[in-house]
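Model it.
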Amino acid sequence: MDFRTPVAITAPSFSIEPLEEMLFVGSCFADSIGQRFLDEHFRATVNPYGTMYNPVSVLHTIERWLDEMGDSLGKSSSGRLIVFITLGTNHVYRLKSTGEIVDNCQKRPQSLFSEEELSINECADSLRQAIACLQEALARMERPKSLQVIFTVSPIRYAKYGFHESQLSKATLLLAVDKVVRETPIAHYFPAYEIVLDELRDYRFYNADMLHPSPQAVEYIWQQLAAHYFSPATRRFLEEWRPIKAALAHRPFHPESAEYQAFLADAQQKEQALLSRYSG
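Modeled.
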């Protein structure tokens, strides 16, 4: 008898290779997953201007990042960029004096802003614009890069809206992402939201606030992502990297000892040899 309701994950049309060049933009859930990719030696940039929760702010981040990267984006030997976009809410704050949707209220008085909810089409339009900006920037490079975009919806509920309103917000995001994925071959959806709410479905998989997924839940999502999105070469790399990573993380009682320094030098040498083998 099966006491779980496993979430079916659609296999993507591509595989994530070792040390890929990646960009993570979105909610604090993007921080958690992005940090895991950094720990595993992927060339990842994670929320370069802080966490962003709604599709418009995600678009602003991508536009700003592309503008600031300029020609340096093309200097990596990687021929592809993988972008993870994690959406948290369709609520936005508009500065009354300018009509601009802001990414951060910067602790200014709430009276200066009006809170609004983006429609499904408004969310989808921002996501389409984000993809178009990325494609245009990558195509302009001396050595053009290809692009893959993976959407997720954050499983973190927004208690301040009320749980019913939070669900309506998530539904809007899910419908917007579905529209974009259906019409865009390079766009994919990974069901992190459904995994936490439908498959894990237990408070032991949440932090003390009962809202944010626990490290155990994030680890499970990572395992599902690896099982369905990682290439055989990436899985081999992670297997070889695991003991080296553990050795580098070891904290001895006497770090100044000759024995530990030799141990550390050996681990660092193995790390560089592994990276050299897979970076080509």
